[in-house]
Amino acid sequence: FKNVCSFLKCVDSLYAGSGWTCQIIDIEGDVEGEDRALKQETLELWQRDLVECVEELIRNPALRDVMAYVPEHVY
């Protein structure tokens, strides 16, 4: 690559796969704060749809010859 811009342009052209979703969750810990209440924290939970991920793997022609749909006994 000649420069960072050309590298990032190439990276942006790659297939991104199934999308990510973000769910905000609030959790309560087991540590008490100064006010004697349990501490709470807000977290981001990033996740993908499992069915979409499996569909992408099955549709990928590069994996056609190495994917097995039945159990195999390997010694």
Automatic annotation (TrEMBL):
It comes from the Eukaryota. InterPro entries: Plavaka (IPR041078). This is Uncharacterized protein. It holds the Pfam family Plavaka.
